[in-house]
User: Fold this.
Amino acid sequence: MRTATAIIDLIALGNNYRKIQSLSPNAKVLAVLKANGYGHGLELIAKALPNADAFGVARIDEALALRAAGIERPIVLLEGFFAKEDIDTLVEHNLQTIVHNEQQLNAIIDAKLKSPLKIWLKIDTGMHRLGINPDQLTQFYQALSQSVNVQKNIILMSHLGCADEKNNQATPKQVALFNELTADFSLEKSMANSAGVLLWPESHYQWIRPGLLLYGVSPLPMDTCVDGIVPVMTLQSSLIAVREITAGAAVGYSGAWVSEKNTTIGVVAIGYGDGYPRHAPNGTPVLINGRCVPLIGRVSMDMITVDLGENSQDQVGDVVTLWGKGLPVEKVAEFSTTIPYELLCNITRRVQVQLAQE
Ligand SMILES: *Cc1c(COP(=O)(O)O)cnc(C)c1O
Assistant:
């Protein structure tokens, strides 16, 4: 009997990658693998994308894990290095780094490196999170390009804050500012995350940086159709109890759900200890034997309860899908008032990982 299992479809991953390439045929792809490949498995995903032009991670440990697993593709630290002591590690393991602040700039210039670093210089074009201010570009670029510690052909980049909202004018503003700032540089440029890939072709430049979309999940609102993208992860478990209850029975912690009628409830072996969201409300869809049934009551650490309905035929041992093929994680996220990103990367170590059968 299956307990909480993330079934990973690497064929779908490859197809999603090719679909993304077709949306931006002239751009190179930096495949974003941070947070354990959005919960799908860092090394597993990297090995399944042998043609990716580069991989993006958020922490140096993630990059080192990839190198330890034998991954030789370019790897970019998307937030740069955090401590100047890490610079030698970057050189030793051939890691590329973003530069977004003065501390990083100074550390690079002052270092004595065995070989020069590949740098992505990040400009803040309006998101106001990471990046140098537009008026610092000349200073940073000159200092970096004159340093023996920096390779020729710095890449200029920025990040979009509102790319998933197709009517939000923040994105065209960011793109226009980026164009204005970088017009005089014949260097490679990069701006688009998944939503940029889908909605803003003018943000593609030479490098796109998809994350979520690779995993077959859309960053756009639920009512926006995204063709040809298939979920890579299907999260499943099994029914471990099927029980008749009478009208008026309270189910689960705090008796938070009370049945209005006689019905059959199912108990599924998955809970917040596996990464299923604890705040998923009554009515969150759960897929069993080809139909969606509502979650009822509180999500426990190891279990959830669902209302199977009065005359259900479901049995102990039947497979239950929490999200993935047949039930988009985007939908579960919407019910849980969160985003699919959080649900995917909250999958815990207890969840078994299994490859999909072809
Ligand atoms: C996470 C990240 C991405 C990918 O974002 P998605 O929305 O998952 O496509 C791209 N660029 C940077 C700098 C990131 O940190």
In short: The domain at 10-215 is CATH 3.20.20.10 (TIM Barrel). The chain has a mean pLDDT of 97.
